[in-house]
Amino acid sequence: MAIPGSGLAKGLAVTLRTMTKKTVTAQYPDVQPELPPRTRGVIGLFEENCTVCMLCARECPDWCIYIDSHKETVPAAVPGGRERSRNVLDRFAIDFSLCMYCGICIEVCPFDALFWSPEFEYAETDIHELTHERDKLREWMWTVPEPPALDPRAEEPKEIAAARKAAEKAATAAAAEAAAAEAAAAAEAEARPAEGEQQ
Ligand code: SF4
Ligand code: SF4
């Protein structure tokens, strides 16, 4: 049988414990929250990487990515070569009033043109303002955090390995070229007095 008043004592104990605990309420907006590095705040567009492949727009479950483009003819790189055509971006916009922050567009982009930024302070009083056009999406790129450092025991990414090999190859070729030029200059210098003696 419960002792009379024990419930009240228990309740008071809980109140006292809570009163003496450190407060965890974030005083936003006076204090900015400490967000985890992979926070999904807003999407930034690195336009230079976008090839207008349309994958992101097709895979977006909310159909909130709007892309317009036109084709341009690129002249042949070498004489007698073939002209090529490429897509040129006219419009890239994301409607954040529809976006559900699933991240599919970022995952599927094969050219690393979309990135998460932790910025979240872009509330608007007019819903139309939540459609961010390419200039705005580009501005968000400045707020994208650096990628975390690789695990020291991780395999070297193949892009970095390829770039390193290409740089090494170029350095070896440049060194060989410099050595050949040096040898040619030395041979020329050696030949010059002999020519002088003949005269
Ligand atoms: S995060 Fe998801 S919903 Fe938002 S634009 Fe990308 S794919 Fe669409
Ligand atoms: S998937 Fe990437 S490259 Fe393709 S249109 Fe979207 S942002 Fe551009």
Automatic annotation (TrEMBL):
InterPro entries: 4Fe4S_Fe-S-bd (IPR017896), 4Fe4S_Fe_S_CS (IPR017900), NADH_quinone_OxRdtase_chainI (IPR010226). Residues 41-70, 90-119 form the 4Fe-4S ferredoxin-type domain. Its cofactor is [4Fe-4S] cluster. Residues 152-166, 189-199 have a biased composition (Basic and acidic residues). The keyword 4Fe-4S applies. Residues 147-166, 177-199 are annotated as: Disordered. [4Fe-4S] cluster 2 binds at residues 60, 99, 102, 105. It is a peripheral membrane protein. Binds 2 [4Fe-4S] clusters per subunit. Its EC number is 7.1.1.-. [4Fe-4S] cluster 1 binds at residues 50, 53, 56, 109. It is found in: Cell membrane. Keywords: 4Fe-4S, Cell membrane, Iron, Iron-sulfur, Membrane, Metal-binding, NAD, Quinone, Repeat, Translocase, Ubiquinone. Pfam families: Fer4. Residues 177-188 have a biased composition (Low complexity). It comes from the Bacteria. NDH-1 is composed of 14 different subunits. Subunits NuoA, H, J, K, L, M, N constitute the membrane sector of the complex. NDH-1 shuttles electrons from NADH, via FMN and iron-sulfur (Fe-S) centers, to quinones in the respiratory chain. The immediate electron acceptor for the enzyme in this species is believed to be ubiquinone. Couples the redox reaction to proton translocation (for every two electrons transferred, four hydrogen ions are translocated across the cytoplasmic membrane), and thus conserves the redox energy in a proton gradient. Belongs to the complex I 23 kDa subunit family. This is NADH-quinone oxidoreductase subunit I. It comes from Streptomyces zaomyceticus. The gene is nuoI.
